[in-house]
Amino acid sequence: MPQDLRTYLIAHHVAIRPCLVLSDEEMVWLGSLSQRNLISPSDLRPSYDYIIPGGGLAGPVLASRLSQDSSVSILVLEAGASGDDPDDRTRIVVDTPSEAYFTSIVGTQYDWTHQTAPQGNLAMNAMYLVRPSSVEIDAWAELLGSMDDDGSASTYNWQCMHVAMRKSETFVPPLDQPQRVGNIQYKAQISITGNWTTTLQSTLNIPVLTTPNGGTTLGGYILPSSINPSNWTWSSSRSYIDRLPSRSNLHILTNAHVTRIVFPSTRSSSGEVVASSVEFADGRKGERKIVNVAREVILASGLVGSPRILMLSGVGPKDVLENAGVGVAEELGGVGVFLQDHVVRLSSLSI
Asked: Do 298 and 52 form a contact (C-beta atoms < 8 A)?
């Protein structure tokens, strides 16, 4: 994977920054909202050490970790709203993300309405925690290895990712009543089975999977939820940003739509393409502004947003960029391809 671009593509729950290990302290949540790190456009500095396009899932995690070093400055550019408007009735649903999935916030300001396949965003999901299969992750590492320049792709395998996943999670047992009713058995690894999983085995011959989050996913099991155990809400911004004390080195700007990463026309002395600034618009069709970056641009705009920004910046397959009239800053054939979403099939059984 080319090191000159210094990009970290985000796919579902996994940041392609190998084995980002999170402490239990970083999983602490706050029930109340905080505005202390949000800024207005007039508060922007001319330059930041790190700029993170995307404040959804991985962006707040990275911002929280990087801002622990008070000597560096971080800017998060989030295209969406903060979700803190007291007059926005949708906020009630967003604050309980599982409601956003089942009740649906499709068509609101929180839905990007990408015309690909039915999909959602961080605030629009059922909050189920499902780890991928080890076969999928190892295949991903193998695929990256074919494009790797320094051998780092091997750290994206299941063994490494599983360690990172385990350290980013805090397991809270189910409440006593549902545990008794469902005869729920669990281990904090996370493994949960109950009455209905044994019914699947006895009626449909679907085996009970006792370690569904250990790399094997075929079988019957109960999904845990990734939620705040106190009030059943959850999001990366609430857990990784709102809990922070005041940090003058961290700025978060909402309604900031990143339009491109700016690469100078001349390469570095070593022939590399190095980002110099980020262009964004105030709102979807607002005035475009430029902010400079001293160290890195870390892309965290999702599996649709990140490749979109890269290609608008001239990074991607040469033929695609030229056909769209975009100047090629760096030819990189893997951008915008290899996307595989999971398949869902709902079944209802009458017993």
From this structure: yes
